[in-house]
Amino acid sequence: MSDFSETRIKLVSNLSFFTLIITVIWYFVARSIELFSLSNCLGITVILFLLSAIIAKKGNLSIARILYLVALSFSVSLTASFIGRPGSVEFVLLFAMGLPFLLFSFRREPFYVGFFAVLPCIFWILLQLTDFKLFTQQQMDPELARDIIYPISVISTIALATFQLIYFSLINGRYFAKIHNKKDEAIEASNAKSQFLSTMSHEIRTPLNAIIGLSYILNESKPPENLKENIEALNYSGKILLSLLNDVLDFSKMQSTKIELDLIPTDIHKAIKQIKKTHEASCLRKGITLNLQIDDDIPIVWLDIVRFNQVINNLVSNAIKFTKKGSVTLIINKKASNEEQIIIHTAIKDTGIGLTTEQQEKIWEAFTQASSTTNRLYGGTGLGLSIVKSIVTAMSSNVQIDSTIGKGSSFSFDLALKPASKDQMEKQTEKKDRNFTNRKVLLVEDNLINVMVGKQILEKAGLKVDVANDGKIAVDMVKENDYDTVLMDIQMPIMDGYTASSEIRKFNTKVPILALSASVFVEVKNKIESCGMNGFIYKPFDPEDLLDKIEETF
User: Fold this and answer.
1) Into how many domains does the chain fold?
2) Of 140, 162, 187, which residue constitutes the final position of a domain?
3) Where is the domain boundary, 401, 427, 453?
4) In angstroms, rounded to a whole number, what is the distance separating the alpha carbons of residues 196 and 245?
C-alpha cells in the first residue's frame, strides 16, 4: 500500500499528463519552425512525463515527482535556450518554482521542497548569465520568436497555472462536500444518541423514582426500629444509583469533568455506616471481611456527601470485586486541622489481585479496564474509576495508588474541608414547616406507579391532588378547574407535555407549570422553556426538593 495520500497521487499523475500534452504541442511547434534538435529533445521529455504519470499511478511518488520536476525544469530551460530571450519561455520556470510546495510535504520532506524550488532558479540564472545560450549557440529569429513563440509561452504558463487552480478548486469542493456530509452524519448520529439516551434515561428513572419515593413514604410512616435502618439503606442506595446514572447520562459533564459540588454540613461517621451496610452482603457471599476504621475525633465538616459516597462506593465495590480472600478496609483519618480547615485522609485497601505500573496509568481512562482478562473475569463498564477521578479532581485532590501484583492495592486521597457546626447541620436537616392549606395541584403523569408515589407524597404534605394520565386530559382539566400548580410529565401518549403546556398557555398564562423531566440534556431544558413552562424537576425527584419547588411557585 502507498505511503502517500490518494489526493497527492492523483495530483502528480494528472499534472504529468497535462504537462505531457503541452510538451507535445511544443514538439509540433518546434518541428514546424524547423528546430529539429529542440523537437527531438522535447520528444524525450514527453516520454519522461509519460513515465512520471505511470509511476505516479502506481503510487511510487518518490520517483515520479523527482522525474517530473527535473524534466519540467530541463525542458523549459532547453526550449528557452533554443528560442532566445524574446520568446519569454523562461517564465514557465516561475510555475516550476512553486510546484515543490504542492508536491512535497514541507514537514516530512523539507530537503526536496528546498532543492526543487531552487533548481528552476538556478536554470533561470544560468540562462541570464549565458544570454540564453545555455544549451545551444544557434537561436531562432528574434522577430519570429516575439510574434509566434511569445504568445504560445504566455498561453502555456497560463494553462499550467489555470490547470492547478481548477484542479485544486475541484479537490477542495469535493473535500468540503465530504466534510459537510460527514458533519451531517455526525449530527444525525449525535441526535440519535441523544434520543436513545433520553429515552433510556426516562425508562431507567421511572422505576428508580418509585424506589426513592416509596422508601421516603415508608420512612415517613413511622416504621418499627428494626425496619427503619433497612428503609434508610434502600433510600440511600436509590440515591447513589441516581447519582451514578446522572454522571453516565450527562455526557457534557462527564467530558468536561466540570462537576458542581453541593456542600452541606456532614457527619462522616453517620454517612459511612450506610456504605458498610450496603456492601456487607457482597463481602459475606465472597467470604471476605469489610473493615471500617474512622477516627472518633473527626468533626462535622462541609462536604458534598453524595459525591463523596459515590467515590467511596466505587472504590469499595472495585476492591470487593477484585479480592477473592482476605479483607477490604476503608480508612478515614483526620490528618491535620486548624480553625479554618481539616485535612481528611481517606484510603481503601484490599488484599486482591493488584495492579502493574502500566495498569495503574490505564485504569483512569473512561470505558477502560486493567486488561481484557479483567473484563472477561470480573465484568464492569470501566467507568467507575473515571468517575472517581473526575469527582476527586473537582474536590481539589488526586487519587494515589499503591499496588503490588498478588498482594493487593490501596487507593487514597486527602481532602481539605471546612469545619461546620452541629447547629448548621441540624438546620440543614430539619424538616421545613410548609403551609399547603387549600392548595391544589394537577399531577400529569401516565405511569401508574409514579402517580401512586407522587400522589402520596403530595397529599401527605397537605396538598389537594388531581391526576391526568395524558396531556389532552390535562388541558381539559385546566380549562375546567383552578390549580395553584401543574406538575407536567414530558413523555406521554396521545399528547406530550410540551404540546399540552403550549395549549394551556393559549388560554391560561398564569398557572405555574413545572416539568417532570427524566432527561438531563440541554435541548430538553431549552424546549421546556420555549413551550411556556416555569421550571423543571428531575425524575426521580427528592420529595423535599419537589415540595420546595412547588412552594416556590406559590
Assistant:
1) 3
2) 140
3) 427
4) 15
Looking at the fold, whether 448 and 385 belong to one and the same domain comes out as no
143, 83 contact by CB (below 8 A): no
User: Long-range contacts: 402-405, Cβ < 8 Å, 24+?
Assistant: 403/354, 403/355, 403/360, 404/354, 405/353, 405/354, 405/355, 405/356
DSSP codes of every residue in 64-108: HHHHHHHHHHHHHHHHHHHH-GGG-GGGHHHHHHHTHHHHS-TTT
Q: Are residues 388 and 438 in the same domain?
A: no
- Bridge partners, 468 (sequence order): 444
Question: Cell 499528463 identifies what position?
Answer: 17
| Among 60, 62, 306, 25, residue whose Cα is nearest residue 151 | 25
Instruction: Say if residue 442 is in the same domain as residue 546.
Output: yes
Q: What is the DSSP letter of 135?
A: S
Shared-domain flag, residues 406 and 456: no
- Is residue 202 included in any domain, yes or no? no
Domain assignment of residue 412, yes or no: yes
- Domain range spanning residue 131? 6-140
Cell of 516: 417532570
Q: Both 17 and 127 in a single domain? A: yes
Q: Verify that 547 and 438 share a domain, yes or no.
A: yes
The CATH number for 531's domain is 3.40.50.2300
Q: DSSP letter string over 483-548?
A: -SEEEEESS-SSS-HHHHHHHHHHH-SSS-EEEEE----HHHHHHHHHTT--EEEESSPPHHHHHH
Closest CA to 212 of 189, 232, 185: 232
Q: What tens-digit pLDDT sequence spans the chain (554 residues)?
A: 456 777 778 888 888 888 898 889 888 888 888 888 888 888 898 899 899 989 988 888 888 889 988 988 888 888 888 888 888 888 888 878 888 887 887 788 889 888 988 998 998 899 888 888 888 887 777 887 787 888 888 888 788 778 777 777 777 777 777 777 777 777 777 666 666 666 666 666 667 767 777 777 777 777 777 777 777 777 767 766 766 666 565 444 444 446 778 788 888 887 787 777 778 878 888 889 989 899 888 888 898 888 888 888 889 888 888 898 899 999 999 988 888 889 999 999 999 888 888 787 777 765 444 444 444 334 444 456 777 888 888 898 999 999 888 889 999 999 999 988 877 776 666 666 777 888 999 999 888 888 888 888 888 888 999 999 999 999 999 999 999 999 998 888 889 889 999 999 999 988 999 988 765 555 666 788 788 888 888 776 778 888 888 888 87
Partners of 416 in beta bridges: 343
3-state secondary structure 156-170: HHHHHHHHHHHHHHH
Task: At 8, list the grid cell.
Answer: 497527492
Secondary structure (3-state) at 447: coil
518 and 548 together in one domain: yes
Assess whether 13 and 103 both reside in one domain.
yes
8 Å CB contact between 417 and 302: yes
- The answer to whether 519 and 188 have CB atoms below 8 angstroms apart is no
The number of C-alpha atoms within 13 Å of 195 and in the hemisphere containing its C-beta is: 6
Peptide bond into 540 cis (omega under 30): yes
The conformation of residue 419, written as its DSSP 8-state character, comes to B
